[in-house]
Amino acid sequence: MNLTLNVWRQPNANAPGRFVTYPVNDISPDMSFLEMLDIVNEGIVHQGEDPIAFDSDCREGICGICGIVINGIPHGGKASTTCQLYMRHFREGETLTLEPFRARPFPVLKDLIVDRTALDRIMSAGGFISASVGSAPDGNDMLVPKNNAEAAMNYAVCIGCGACAAACPNGSAMLFTGAKVAHMAELPQGQPERYQRVVAMLSEHDELGFGSCTNHGECSAVCPAHIPMSAIARINRELTQAALRGYSSATA
Amino acid sequence: MVGVLSFYRTTIGKKVIMAITGGIWVLYVMLHMFGNLKFFQGAEAIDGWAHFLRTFGQEVVGYEGVLWLVRIVLVVSLVLHVWMAWQLSRLSWASRPVKYSRRRWLAADFSGRTMRWGGVFIAVFLVIHIGQLTTGALLNGFQEGEVYRNLILLFSNNLIAAFYILMMIVLALHLNHGIWSLFHSLGWNTYPSKSLKHRLCQLVAIAVPLGFALVPISIVLMGVMNV
Question: CA-nearest residue of chain A to B115?
Answer without folding.
Answer: A214
